[in-house]
Specification:
This protein is α/β, with parallel strands linked by helices and 365 residues long. It has helices at 78-82, 88-95, 98-114, 127-138, 158-169, 183-195, 212-217, 231-239, 248-254, 261-266, 285-294, 300-306, 309-314, 347-354; strands at 4-13, 18-27, 30-36, 44-47, 49-55, 67-70, 73-76, 117-124, 144-149, 172-175, 200-204, 222-225, 243-246, 271-273, 276-277, 331-334, 360-364.
């Protein structure tokens, strides 16, 4: 039997988000009607959020010291924390039993679902076993997870062999950085990804710009961070119609600087947002939105689109990211009369600037 559901309130509608007051009628998970009408409901009906860059394997360690303790302060050292193969996270991942890793990733996926996230892209370490672990963790979870695998060995002919095995199980490749392995290895990985017609993502320009030229030479689909990108770098990214994922809270806590987001947007680059390492940040996209609007001064609707539609586009998840008739979207309903949200006059501005996960009444998948 088919089932219908009607929800009313202030609806954030369409790919270019506008707010209407009215109702949505869903039948078997598909929006069959959207209408405008006066309603007493203060609820806010919004597309769910998209987390475009995570490392949820880092769920095994959520309270690391970010470097060395010197007197009363911490000298931050990003390489000692995350650089392969000997960074702290990689040592801990190698020492963690697969069953424990899967359980902790499941918990983080549940956390994302509970905080309004409907899709994420994960840079998954550990070669084929690492990818299979995340596939296992995703079983039974109503979330879109794009797994961007990473090879575990770089010697000899093993690179192409492992990359092919990896791409049969994953949604693409997620590379740590253009200077973290031999250029020939990187070029082989890019060629294999192209042969399998799967995307090639790469970190670039996170702590300085020394790896940006090498990253761009690999013709990636998506660059992550670009914190230290200069004007000519961004011009090339725009001209080649590449996308960028930024991670504001992660960059702030590791002390590497702030991405030139306004310049990216001014050039027409598609920019999405991720929370990055779970060991550094919870996968809470509301916190990323608040940081973007209050620290970077990005306009509210632009921030909202970066965390919904833009992320969905980068993940090639075009069925989500906005609300429209005929779609099977993932929708979150927020309590517009909560102690936190009561009194807001613009639902988009309210969500971006101050909404929290505890304002969510329900998520409709």
């Amino acid at each position: 039997m088919s089932s219908e559901q009607i929800i009313s309130g202030k609806i954030i509608l369409g790919p270019e988000p506008e707010v209407i007051e009215g109702y949505i009628c869903l039948r078997d998970g598909v929006i069959i009607d959207i209408g405008e009408e006066n309603t007493s409901s203060e609820n806010i009906i919004s597309p769910c959020l998209v987390n475009a860059h995570t490392h949820i394997g880092d769920s095994v360690l959520k309270d690391p010291i970010l470097g060395k303790i010197v007197g009363n302060r911490v000298e931050r050292d990003l390489d000692s924390l995350v650089k392969p193969p000997d960074g702290l996270k990689h040592r801990i991942l190698q020492a963690t039993p697969q069953s424990r890793l899967i359980e902790l990733m499941k918990r983080t996926i549940s956390d994302m679902l509970g905080t309004g996230t409907s899709a994420f892209a994960d840079f998954r370490e550990g070669g084929v076993p690492g990818t299979l672990a995340l596939k296992n963790a995703l079983e039974g979870k109503n979330i879109i997870g794009r797994i961007l695998g990473r090879i575990s060995r770089t010697e000899g002919n093993y690179v192409e062999y492992e990359a092919e095995r990896l791409l049969k199980e994953s949604d693409g490749l997620g590379i740590s950085g253009a200077l973290d392995m031999d250029k020939n290895v990187l070029e082989t990985l890019r060629q294999v990804a192209a042969a399998y017609k799967k995307p090639f993502f790469i970190h670039a320009g996170e702590k300085n710009r020394t790896d940006i030229d090498s990253a761009l030479s690999l013709d990636p689909h998506v660059l992550v961070h670009m914190t230290h990108a200069e004007s000519h770098d961004l011009k090339q990214v725009a001209d080649e119609q590449k996308s960028v994922v930024i991670c504001p809270r992660s960059n702030f806590i590791t002390g590497v600087g702030m991405s030139p987001v306004k310049n990216m947007l001014d050039l027409g680059i598609t920019v999405a947002v991720g929370t990055d390492n779970v060991m550094l940040n919870s996968p809470n996209m509301f916190a990323e939105m608040e940081a973007l609007v209050k620290i970077f001064g990005i306009e509210d609707r632009q921030v909202f689109m970066m965390c919904t539609l833009n992320g969905a586009s980068i993940l090639n998840a075009n069925e989500i990211g906005y609300i429209a008739k005929g779609l099977s979207p993932k929708i979150m309903v927020l309590n517009g009369s909560s102690d936190n949200l009561t009194g807001i006059t613009d639902p988009i501005r309210g969500i971006v600037r101050r909404a929290r996960p505890d304002d969510i009444l329900t998520v409709i998948n």
